[in-house]
Amino acid sequence: MNDTLNIGGREFQSRFILGSGKFSLEMTRLVIENGGVEMATLALRRAGAGGKENILDYIPKGVTLLPNTSGARDAREAVRIARLARELGCGDFIKIEVIPDTKYLLPDNGETIKATEILAKEGFIVMPYMHPDLIAARRMADAGAAAIMPLGAPIGSNKGLLTRDFIKILVGEIDLPIIVDAGIGRPSQACEAMELGVAAVMANTAVATAGDAGLMASAFKLAIEAGRRAWLAGPGRVLAYAAEASSPLTGFLED
Amino acid sequence: MRCETPEREAIPSDILDKTRALARAYDPAACTAADVRNALGRDTLTFYDYGALLSPAAEPFLEETARRARAETRRQFGTSVSLFTPLYIANYCDNLCAYCGFQRDNPIARARLTPEEIEAELRAIAQTGLREILLLTGESRRHSDPGYIGAAVRLAKRYFSAVGLEIYPLNTDEYARLRQDGADFVSVYQETYDEELYEKVHVSGPKRAFSYRFHAQERAVLGGMRGVSFGALLGLGDFRRDAFAAGLHAFFFQQKYPRAEISFSVPRIRAYANNAALGPRDVGERQLLQVMLAYRLFMPFAAITISTRERPGFRDHAVGLAATRISAGVSVGVGGHGAEQKGEAQFEISDGRSVAHIHEMLLSRGLQPVYTDYIAL
Question: Please, what's the b/e burial string for A24-56 (b: 16 or more CB within 10 A of its CB; e: otherwise)?
Answer without folding.
Answer: bbebbbbbbebbbbbbbbbbbbbbbebbebebe
